[in-house]
Amino acid sequence: MNKNELLTSSYDYELPAHLIAQHPVQPRDSAKLLVYNRETDTTTHTTFKNLLEYLPIECDIFLNDTKVIKARIFGKKKSGGRVELLFNKPINATDYLVMIRGRVKIETELFFDDTLMATVTKLNSDGSRVVRFKHHTKDIRFEELILILDKIGHIPLPPYMHRTDNKEDEIDYQTLFAKNAGAVAAPTASLHFTPELFEALEQRHQTHKITLHIGAGTFKPVAVENILEHPMHSEYFHIPLESAEILKSEKPILAIGTTVTRTVEYFSRTGKVDGECDLFLNPYNRPKRVTHLLTNFHLPKSTLIMLVSAFVGREKTLELYHEAISKNYRFFSYGDAMLII
Q1: Judgement on whether residues 111 and 41 belong to the same structural domain of the protein
Q2: Does 328 fall in a domain?
Q3: What is the pLDDT of residue 217?
Q4: Residue 44 belongs to what H/E stretch?
C-alpha cells in the first residue's frame, strides 16, 4: 500500500468557500448525487430523487435514528462574563462532557436561562470539560436535561456554517425518522430524503434502524501526521436485536451514512449491540460487513474522508471529490451526496 495512505496531509484538498453549503436545497431530494460503481469504475451524476434507480435491488438498508438535541446554550459566569456551552454527551448519571467557549476553571459556576446551572468539575487536556448540571438547585439526569435544552438551547450547527441557527434548522437539521435524542450533529446522508422518497425506499427495500449519538468529536480534525496515531473519539450506540440478526446474515447492506457504517463495522468486529463505538475506518482498516455506502462530502483531513477512502482508496476518493468540485457539488452537512456501490 502507498505510504501516502498513512499521511494526514495526503487527505487534503482545496474547496472553494462558495461550495460549503450554508442551507439545504429544497426540496431535500433535489440535491446532486454522485454515483460511483466500483465494479465498472464508472461515475454517474444525477439527483438524489433518482437514488432508487442506482441501488442494487438485493440489499437491506440501515439508518441512524438518532435525534439532534439543542445542545448549544449561552450563559454567564458569576463575574458576568459570557460563556457558550456545547453539550457533548453524558458520562454517567450526573457528569457531562461539554465544550465551553470562555475561560473557566474547576468549580467555576455557569448560569443559564430557566435557572439551569453548571459547575465545572474537570478540565481535560483535549479542551473538553466535565460539568454537573443543576436545575432549581437539584442535580438532574440526562432525560430531564434534554427537556430543558429543548426550551433554552440552540441547534448546534457545525462550525463551518458561519451563521446562527434559525427555526428552519430545527426541521432541516433533523432526519424524517429521528427518534432517540442525544446527538449534537445530524446523520447528514439521511437529510436528503423527502417523505415520498423515503416511503418508496421502504416499499422496495427492507429498512433497519440503529442508533449512534453523534458527538462533537465528529468535527475534530486529525492533528497527527500518521493517521494511525489519531485518538478516535467514542460515541454511544445501540443496535436492536432484529437489526443485529440481519447483520449476522450475509445479506448485502447499504449503510446510509458514516455513523451507520462505523456502528455496523464495530458490531461485526466485537458482536456488541450497545456501548461506546470508537472504530476508525481508513485504508488500513477497511469495511468487512457494509456492502454499499451513501454519504455526503466531507472535510479535508477528517476521519470521515478517511472512512470513504477505506471503501475506494485515497486516490480515487480525491479524484471523485475533485470531479464533484468541478461540477459545483455542495459540500458538508447541508451539501450533496455520494453513493458508492
Answers
A1: no
A2: yes
A3: 85
A4: strand 42-47
